[in-house]
Specification:
Elements: H1 2-16, H2 20-33, H3 48-64, H4 72-86, H5 93-96, H6 103-117, H7 123-152, H8 155-167, H9 169-174, H10 180-194, H11 205-218, H12 223-236, H13 240-267, H14 273-283, H15 297-307, H16 311-320, H17 326-340, H18 354-367, H19 372-392, H20 397-409, E1 420-424, E2 441-444, H21 460-466, H22 468-475, E3 485-489, H23 490-493, H24 497-502, E4 505-512, E5 524-530, H25 533-546
Parallel strand pairs: 1-2, 1-3
Antiparallel strand pairs: 3-5, 4-5
Helix pairs in contact: 3-7, 4-6, 6-7, 7-8, 7-10, 8-18, 10-11, 11-13, 12-17, 15-17, 16-18, 21-22
């Protein structure tokens, strides 16, 4: 017993006196064997510094995007939120037809309401706060995307996925904009984080189904992307009935119920906007009124343009990615194919698949050897040029002209007459009251689709551009009906020059818009102000007297 006791104490002393370096070596060995062990959680989780970097970069992203993209980023979000809080603003025909839900605009309306309560509702804050909120959500999504790949693969591949995400010109162009497609792209990363992907341990059926339901509430076509993933999960689940009854049905009913209540409050009646939206855009295909493209457009133009110089890396990554990621590739192909069957196509419609595509780009960059450095440099520089041009130069005139309109509200340009503005441009070319924030009289050319199914239907915008002078003389039949200001593209000026001259309109401002004008959209935007006849007589009299 004495000998046994002595050997026990000798073993304890040797363990206690084990060198610190050896213990550290064992700790490192353990962390290599268990790559999913997270260390140093911090305030914002295991990726505190990465989160701070992402927030900083997306904030810069927000400030460097000073151009317009599509009308929906104002008319289907900010304009609706402005109307919800301040009780004036324009609601487009989609809201009159109950095709849109108030859930997404409500996010911005909450911040508008807080600004109103604290009497800080300045125009600049109303413009930038929603953009910064969207930027913060985009930063969170970037980190979530990094975490997904880190848990499923390793930190090296996750690093290149994160780099690909930040380098993407189209992500930079869209991520901070207040359109439903941007929120869809954010939710893509969040849903993937909780989706039970093979090789990850962060799966949560309730959370990913709840986020999927929210994505469907924000934009019903989101179901297209998630349908194959949800079906695969259901197929692989051993307890299918339990998943259906205890997860899918409760989450779906709760999300739909909240959406119905929100829309009931603001519409004043019970309405299921998700069904109306799908019926109008998918079943009846009425979106083709705003343009149609051939079925192969997404394969030949849409997807290549959105991916840009990432495209070869995406294709290379598809060949290298492990088999467990085939479901992600299937979701991308399925989404593009389904959208190809719809006549009306836009680049932004496939933006929500971009985070998934970046996963494959990350696999490509991580596996490059000799060509990695030149590939990374070329990818960065090529996207940087597009980021700066599309964010700071291309299509900025429609936002710059609204700063001019804001000044009319302050009464710095007109003294005797209440200002009024008419936009003689393709409908919804500019933002509206959400970028002016004063009840100045403004009007524009309407262009709702043929809701009455009238064979001879022509919208107001088409009528104007077909016979501009006739339309102007009919609409403004007397002096009292004339607006004080007209806003139009330079390509229209020559066509309506007689009207401008006879009605005493003078050009007072010009704003650059784009280097690539097309159709009714010109390279510059002109602002004309109607001069008072008495002022013109006085000016001419003074000129004659001086002479």
């Amino acid at each position: 017993m004495e000998r046994l006791r002595n050997s026990f104490f000798r073993a304890r002393r040797s363990a206690a006196s084990e060198p610190v370096k050896l213990r550290k070596r064992k700790s490192v060995l353990y962390s290599k064997e268990c790559p999913n062990v997270e260390r140093g959680t911090g305030l914002l989780g295991p990726n505190t510094y990465l989160m701070m970097l992402s927030i900083a970069l997306r904030s810069v992203n927000c400030l460097l995007v000073q151009t317009s993209f599509v009308a929906d980023e104002y008319w289907q979000s900010l304009e609706v939120a402005h109307n919800m809080v301040f009780k004036y603003g324009y609601l487009t025909w989609e809201w009159k037809e109950r095709l849109r839900g108030y859930t997404y605009p409500l996010i911005f309306a909450i911040f508008y309401k807080l600004l109103q309560i604290f009497k800080k509702d300045t125009v600049q804050l109303l413009i930038w706060i929603p953009r910064l909120v969207q930027s913060f959500l985009a930063a969170l999504a970037d980190v979530k995307l990094y975490s997904i790949v880190k848990k499923q693969a390793n930190a090296e591949i996750a690093k290149w996925v994160y780099f690909s995400q930040l380098c993407s010109w189209f992500t930079w162009y869209c991520s901070t904009r207040t359109i439903t497609n941007s929120m869809e792209a954010v939710l893509t990363s969040f849903i993937l984080y909780y989706y039970p992907l093979q090789g990850t341990k962060t799966g949560s059926s309730s959370k990913y189904l709840a986020l999927t339901a929210f994505a469907f509430t924000v934009r019903p076509t989101a179901i297209i992307l998630w349908l194959p993933l949800v079906f695969t999960h259901f197929w692989q689940e051993m307890k299918k009935l339990d998943l259906l009854l205890h997860k899918c049905l409760p989450v779906g009913c709760l999300s739909l119920g909240i959406s119905l209540i929100i829309d009931r409050i603001f519409y004043g009646e019970w309405v299921m906007v998700q069904w109306n939206f799908l019926r109008f855009n998918v079943i009846e295909n009425m979106g083709s009124f705003y343009g149609s493209h051939p079925w192969y457009w997404y394969f030949t133009q849409g997807f290549p343009v959105v991916m840009g110089t990432h495209l070869p890396f995406f294709i290379h990554g598809c060949l290298l990615a492990p088999k467990r990621n085939r479901i992600l590739l299937l979701a991308v192909l399925w989404t593009i194919i389904v959208y190809s069957f719809l006549s009306h196509k836009e680049f932004r419609f496939i933006y929500p698949i971009m985070p998934i595509c970046m996963v494959f780009c990350g696999y490509s960059l991580a596996n490059l050897k000799a060509w990695k450095k030149p590939a990374v440099i070329s990818l960065f520089l090529s996207n940087l040029c597009l980021i700066l041009y599309t964010g700071l130069i291309h299509q900025r005139g429609t936002l710059d002209v609204m700063h001019y309109v804001q000044k009319l509200c302050k009464g710095t340009m007109l003294e005797k007459e209440e200002p009024s503005v008419f936009f003689l441009m393709p409908c919804h070319s500019t933002p509206f009251y959400s970028y002016v924030h004063c009840p100045i009289k403004m009007d524009f050319l309407e262009c709702p689709p043929n809701l009455s199914r009238n064979i001879s239907y022509v919208d107001e915008a088409d009528l104007f551009f077909k016979e501009s002078l006739t339309w102007l003389n009919t609409r403004f039949y007397n002096q009292a009906s004339l607006p004080t200001h007209l806003v139009l593209y330079n390509v229209l000026e020559q066509n309506i020059e007689p009207f401008l001259r006879i009605k005493n309109y003078m050009k007072v401002a010009t704003f650059f818009h784009t280097h690539v004008p097309e159709g009714r959209v010109g390279s510059h935007i002109h602002v004309f102000e109607r001069k008072n006849m008495d002022n013109r007589f006085t000016q001419h009299f003074l000129i004659v007297t001086i002479r």
